[in-house]
Amino acid sequence: MQVAMIGTGYVGLVSGACFADFGHTVTCIDKDAAKIEQLQAGGIPIYEPGLDVLVTQNVKAGRLFFATDAAEAVRKADAVFIGVGTPSRRGDGYADLSYVYAAAEEIASLVEGFTVVVTKSTVPVGTGDEIEAIFKRVRPDADVAVVSNPEFLREGAAIEDFKHPDRVVVGAMDDRAREVMRELYRPLYLNETPILFTSRRTSELIKYAANAFLALKITYINEMADLCEAVGADVQQVARGIGLDGRIGSKFLNAGPGYGGSCFPKDTVALVRTARDAGTPVELVETTVKVNDERKRAMARKVIKALDGQVKGKTVGILGLTFKPNTDDMRDAPSLAIIPALQDKGAKIQAFDPEGDEARSLLQDVDFKDDPYDAAAGADVLVIITEWDQFRALDLNRIKLIMNQPKLVDLRNIYKPEDMRARGFDYVSVGRDSAPRDGLQPKHTQEDRARARY
After folding, report:
1. 8 A C-beta contact, residue 386 and residue 325
2. pTM for this one?
3. Choosing from 18, 28, 228, 263, which is the catalytic residue?
4. Under CATH, what is the fold of the domain 2-198?
5. Is the predicted pLDDT of residue 444 greater than 80, yes or no?
6. What does the pLDDT look like over 156-196, one tens digit per residue?
7. d(CA 451, CA 454)
8. Which end of the chain is flanked by fewer CB atoms within 10 Å, N or C?
9. Contact 128, 150 (CB under 8 A)
10. DSSP string across 231-245
């Protein structure tokens, strides 16, 4: 099939390359001429493991193309995907749909014959209706079907997620559109991937509901980590104990410095706004947003506490700046809250991240280093914010020798407390190995004691 992908950001580029690998002919279109020139020259503007190989292979096979002019690709297309950004709108948190609507107007002026217009971007409920209205206004004669097909890609594992998804969700009101979408995803039938056909509005809400639930799950285990520290329990064992329950599951139960990235922060806020407008507040999600924002500041206080409150003039080494490993995405990364909070207290920051070059424009007065050992050298405390694989196998003896003092704050719990202390580190982690606070003994009534005698 002929596919046009509007937008060559994270969603558009990954989706376009994967559709091409399925055997479809795909043209990825972007207004950014420099980005298109980079792609045509074999460069990749984002970091995603395996994406460079996938793009190169499909360009060579004549299935994947890049262009700034959408006209030819849209005219030929069986399906046109809108994969542009929907960032939070400044001031109110609503999703900024200006790029989506601009793309829809351009597509409307170019389509020929029956065309399926697919919203791949994450958009609030009712956006498909607005896109349909744009077509009726700009091209009332156009034979189009507007479809919702949300993406569920994890940064760092996006290709695997696209080719082996848990499910594909399609919100379509037109039988012809459903057939086009079935054909586009036909290679997944071999893997028996469930394809869920719903109404368009239901599909739009599924994406937000899924992200909000996962954000809530992360926030829940972070609050359990705080409780574990207070009562002397181990959050990793708690997570395993509840995660083995099939009704709960083990994913997204890793305590840490809070969620970030391109999806959870903006999608939870957008869902809150949508629910308020509908008169049905989602109070659990509202609380999740609030608790997660506070979580990042609390992690800075954990580092300050590890330095006994004496931060001014101290050197803090930071390992990991991106919001998660295997991506270069800095959007709402915990490091963007933690580092300025430490700087406000007078700390000197030296940091390393394998792919976090964007941090140089987002963080001020940071000494960016070339490897983790440079970041540790001369540091009074070393802080792990992002759990890149290379941080899991550090030469700890070397780290200990080059630091001013062997103090490590592990915000991702990638090391074992007993091992670190055996190596002579003053080691702090999240939700583990803390003594219970005084006064937290169980309260027994006289009746309880009487029962115990029998």
Report:
1. yes
2. 0.91
3. 263
4. Rossmann fold (3.40.50)
5. no
6. 999 999 999 999 999 999 999 999 999 999 999 877 899 99
7. 5
8. C
9. no
10. HT--HHHHHHHHHTS
How big is the CA angle at 88 (ends 203 and 269), to the nearest 5 degrees? 65
Domain boundaries, the chain: 2-198, 212-428
Q: Classify 5 as helix, strand or coil.
A: strand
DSSP 95: B
CB 100 within 8 A of CB 130: no
Burial degree of 297 (CB within 10 A; 0-12, 13-18, 19+):
middle
Helix or strand holding residue 59 (H, E): helix 51-60
Residue 255 corresponds to which tokens in the numbers above? 């305590």
| 212-428 matches 2-198 in CATH topology | yes
Superfamily of domain 212-428: NAD(P)-binding Rossmann-like Domain (3.40.50.720)
Helix (H) / strand (E) element for 170: namely: strand 168-171
Q: For residue 191, give every residue at least 6 positions away whose Cβ sits within 8 Å of its Cβ, in sequence order, or none.
A: 164
Can you read off the two tokens belonging to residue 407?
């103090």
- 335-383 pLDDT, tens digit each: 999 999 999 999 999 999 999 999 999 999 999 999 999 999 999 999 9
Looking up tokens 């297309």, which residue turns up? Answer: 77
3-class SS at 319?
Answer: strand
Confidence (pLDDT) at 441: 59
> Is residue 263 among the annotated active site residues?
yes
The DSSP bridge partners found for residue 13 are none
Specify the pLDDT at position 442.
58
